[in-house]
Each structure stands twice: as structure tokens, then as C-alpha cells.
Write a structure and sequence with these properties.
Layout (H helix, E strand, L loop, with lengths): L17 E9 L5 H13 L6 E8 L5 H6 L6 E6 L5 H11 L2 E8 L8 H11 L5 E2 L3 E4 L5 E5 L5 H4 L15 E3 H4 L17 H8 L5 E2 L1
Parallel strand pairs: 1-2, 1-4, 2-3, 5-9
Antiparallel strand pairs: 4-8, 5-8, 6-7
Length: about 210
């Protein structure tokens, strides 16, 4: 378990030696204590196995941290923090601590298909001009009942058609180059913590961010 100071910078390039880092910040306000186990297991079951998972327990009062610790996987880095900071702050913190060449987003109440990381990284490696990409998602209830499919645009023009309204990237599906992600820190709007619904929209608007892919 780690608990770094608020600066949370990792400056030694020798420490950045992994292919993939997945970032996950959870707090029990959304029931993450009951779902974070499935989220972590879905990362463990990836066909691509060269990864680290940084989990920030953002002030949970339930057993979120204990569930993550219980996996006993050295690739999982659990960081416990006091409540108060927003999602944007915690994602910045995790990105600064990451060692992967690529960074993927996860949420504590979502799961990945087994080939997600392998397919996304393969696409990024094939096209060096891509900074970040995303994909659609299957939506289900808390009881694992299928709701439907969340579709996204498939071309840059479709994705970037309304940049000041938002970009149709489901948060737990995006994956990008760490060299692009780390310098573009998410900032609270008006000095207040960002809500979960606004973090990646802000970072994409600030660019440069061409091209996008889904």
C-alpha cells in the first residue's frame, strides 16, 4: 500500500518500464465497495498481462480498500487517501504515479472485456498519430441485467463534432499514450473539485488532441 504526499510526482524515467497502466479511483458513495472486486478481476483477466493497476481509495468508509488488498497481486498498487479531493485530482495523482507507456481509465463499478487493453494498445501502436481512443460499452444494471449498448462515433469528425458539449467517450473505455496524458493535468473548475461527469471532457478540449479514434 502506498500513501504519497500531495505532489505525487514520479520523475525518474527508469521507473517507467511497463507497457500499460490502468487508473481506478473509487469511493463508497456509489457502492464501489461492492463492485470494485469485479472491476479489478476484469483487469487481472486481460489477455495482455503486462500491466499495473493503480487504485486510489478516495476516502471510503466501507471495505473498498480491503477488497483491493485481498487480491494479493503485486501489480496492483493501492493508495488510500482522505476524502475531500475530487475525481480529477485523484486521476492526476494516479497518472503521475503511473509507469506505463499507455494509460487506461477504469471506474470502480465497471468491468472490461478480456481483450480490451490488448486491442486498444495494438491500435495505438499501429497509428503513432493517435493520442487517445475509446470504444462503445455494454450497459447493465446492478443486478447484471443487460440494458443495451452505448455506441460512440467511429471517426474523428463524428467524435469531435460538438467539442464544447462533450466528447462521446465513456470514461472507463478510453486509453491513450502516457506521454500525452501526464502533462495535461485535469483542473478543478473555479477551484472546486470536478464531478465525475466532466473530467475527460475538459482535458480533451484543451488539446492539442488530433486525431481521435473509437
Amino acid at each position: 500500500m502506498e500513501n504519497p504526499e500531495p505532489g505525487f510526482l514520479l520523475d525518474d524515467p527508469a521507473d517507467r518500464a511497463l507497457l500499460q497502466t490502468a487508473l481506478l479511483s473509487g469511493r463508497n458513495q456509489s457502492g464501489s465497495g461492492a463492485t470494485v472486486g469485479a472491476a479489478v478481476r476484469s483487469i487481472q483477466m486481460q489477455t495482455l498481462q503486462e500491466w499495473e493497476l493503480i487504485v486510489i481509495d478516495n476516502g471510503s468508509s466501507d471495505n473498498t480498500g480491503s477488497i483491493v488488498n485481498g487480491f494479493g497481486d503485486s501489480r496492483i498498487r493501492l493508495i488510500r487517501e482522505a476524502p475531500g479531493a475530487g475525481l480529477a485530482t485523484r486521476l492526476n495523482q494516479a497518472a503521475a504515479l503511473s509507469r506505463g507507456e499507455f494509460i487506461a481509465r477504469m471506474d470502480a463499478d465497471d468491468v472490461c472485456f478480456p481483450e480490451r487493453l490488448a486491442r486498444q494498445i495494438e491500435r495505438l501502436q499501429q497509428d503513432p498519430e493517435l493520442d487517445v481512443l475509446s470504444c462503445g460499452a455494454v450497459v447493465f444494471t446492478d443486478h447484471a441485467e443487460l440494458v443495451g449498448e452505448l455506441l460512440v462515433g467511429l471517426t474523428h469528425c463524428e467524435i469531435a463534432a460538438r467539442p464544447f458539449v462533450g466528447f462521446p467517450f465513456p470514461h472507463p473505455t478510453w486509453c491513450g499514450r502516457a506521454a500525452w496524458c501526464r502533462p495535461r493535468r485535469l483542473r478543478p473548475r473555479g477551484g472546486k473539485p470536478r464531478t465525475a461527469g466532466s473530467d475527460t471532457h475538459s482535458i480533451r478540449r484543451r488539446g492539442p488532441f488530433l486525431p481521435l479514434a473509437a
